[in-house]
Specification:
With 379 residues, this protein is of the alpha/beta class. It has two domains: 289 residues, Zn peptidases (Aminopeptidase, 3-Layer(aba) Sandwich), CATH 3.40.630.10; 85 residues, no CATH class. The chain contains eleven helices and 15 strands. The strands form three sheets. Strands 1-2-4-3-5-9-7-8 form an eight-stranded mixed sheet, sandwiched between helices. A hairpin with a 2-residue loop joins strand 11 and strand 12. The chain is globular, with a radius of gyration of 22 Å.
Amino acid sequence: METGSIAENYNNFFEAGLSGRYIPLSRIEPLFGKHKKVIALDKIGSSVGGLDIHKFKIGHGKKKILMWSQMHGNESTTTKAVFDLLNFFDSDSDLSASILNECEIHIIPILNPDGAMAYTRINKNEVDLNRDAQDLSQPESRVLRSAFEEIKPDYCFNLHDQRTIFNVGKTDKPATVSFLSPAEDQERTVTSTRKKSMELIADMNNMLQQMIPGQVGRYDDSFNINCVGDTFQSMGVPTILFEAGHFPGDYKRERTREYIFYALVEALNSISHRKINGENSENYFDIPENDKLFCDIILRDFPVVRAEKMEKVDVGILFKEKRSGENILFEPYVEKVGSLHYLYAHKEFIRCDRLISPLKESDLDTKWLEDNLRIFQEN
């Protein structure tokens, strides 16, 4: 795909009605009637709490794709990208028209509307839907399985977010986008089905490297048949896990949504315009695996009293996401204290002793961090 032309016009596809991290059902419902290329918008089920689960159908081709977002309710970046994608299909571009001519695309924008409203990973019964693929104990899980069995997709896109802790390989590059071709067995056998997923991922990676070089990772492929991706892949349907991660300074994930949008278009373009047989899957393994080497903040050479002795240590801080009304707050907490030379940070403060006197390690609590991180930033 000519990524330049799509990128130049991204503002035309950007869904301005969706921004930030809190994307409940009530924020997407006003957008349902605006998409002229959508063939059908159906209610396909209800959540534990009685909220509607919807599915878009768009395109009239023979190649069927099923994608779903917000299986985990607090993972909303891909939902924003999905509505950017719908705007793209409403455009008059030759590429969007050719994709819709070749593909029939089914999109469940929010599979877990209760979790989206509460901004939690789990559903209202406190079940992780991505560990319920075998038991199908939850209504949301059964809705997805029914859609899968009815549509009989040729490809599945499982859309998620990942935490800010992930980096690419051993580098200081954040994993802004990560992919996975899920395993089908404990041995992680590279089957013909997995190879097709791998080939599509390689295509997306080649494209993204032009935009965010070094910021694409490969997610861990440990096998768990209770996960939806592993289940669908083992049923012979090429399935791709998309993980929307951190772009520097982008805690609202507006830049990341853009890269997920490009990846979705690239994958659909590949499916539409050439045969995916897995023969070009080997480049998938060129993508470095994710590691977990990031903190949100590191205070370097920070004076802390430990065992009644003042030491200079590094303090690794992570943010915990907390809903406040329709806003998401990022509350800092101390994750690690010690020599953290092996970790990277999205923001570092060096020689903090110039700003603050030593304190006991036990005093490094949330209130202290909230009071003082502003001081660090101002200095």
